[in-house]
Alkanesulfonate monooxygenase (Phyllobacterium zundukense), 387 residues
Amino acid sequence: MTQPANNSPLDFFWFIPTHGDGTYLGSERQQRPPEFAYFREVAQAVDRLGFPGVLLPTGQACEDSWITAAGLAAHTERLKFLVALRPGVTSPVFAARQTAALDRLSNGRLLLNVVVGGNPTELAGDGVFLPHDERYAQAAEFLKIWRQLVSGETVNFDGKHYRVENGRLDLLPAQERPPLYFGGSSDAGQDLAAEQVDMYLTWGEPVAQVAEKIERARKKAALNGRKLRFGIRLHFIVRETEDEAWAAADRLISKITDEQIEIAQARFLKEMDSVGQRRMAELHGGRRDKLVVSPNLWAGVGLVRGGAGTSLVGSPENIAARIREYQAIGIDTIIGSGYPHLEEAYRVAELLFPQLGLGTKRSAPREVIANEFSVGFHGAKRLQASS
């Protein structure tokens, strides 16, 4: 297998579509409802294919990530679960108890994605009415309490947003402390990352923009005497040839109407106060003729989808080259997805992973039986599997 040019380790996670899945964006045609049986199919497939972990999203339209992860943990072997830690929506002490329980249940396979929220309308439905920067100040207090509790300390805290007296956990996580992942493009978000989290995430912007963003975060972390790791959230449309991949990208958005685009873009820019969401929308401005924002980076998903709105589109060789460009600026973790998520997980694993030296390793020989995939062999033949 071809190894990454810089030989740096790369984690490649996948996505569990707990808000539903489908073949066409903006259309109910060939939709898959958000059912646990389907989530289990995706999780078991990516566990077998060699993805080390999955992201479970959060929000009003999603099944709860904690409960879903608890269910999926019982049906998988190695897969790690990146679930949402929601400052402001829950208390830090209750969240610490949930953390300990799910980490023990999954035998140490829990990761936490800190989600402060970027949509005041949705946050109001959850009872959160703080302005943008104040939400990050609240999150900072939340994480200080949470970190102490899951580390086994007794907590006494008197802050602006939280007060805790003699808080403790009698049952601790299986891990010393489950890692904290976090994405925030604003100054307030980067300040929180610099002080509290382990992995700083960005949505898929052109390499130069990502480089500038993570350099700012790296410098802020250094001022706090800390180092951050960096990850990127991207969709993938990988096919054997460039033409096939771009045709698939066109099909994915072929049912979206101009009215749907207008409604979605207005919501992203007017209803939400997320700096990251604004950066996503500004990549293309809602225009179908401005969707290729850098080589192999396509913003079509972001016409109607909030959050991560860009895809790497192309042949395995070209997408691998783009990934190495992100690796060169410090990215060591990818959280990928694709529509539909079950089929695209197979395409990524079978086409792209060999280019990156990733996936399930088979060290022992395997039996190959004559069939339609090995035409010309007669009877059982033992071949050495590629590593």
Remarks:
- The radius of gyration is 21 Å.
- The chain has one domain: 11-383.
- The longest strand covers residues 229-238.
- Residues 11-383 form a domain with the TIM Barrel fold (CATH 3.20.20.30).
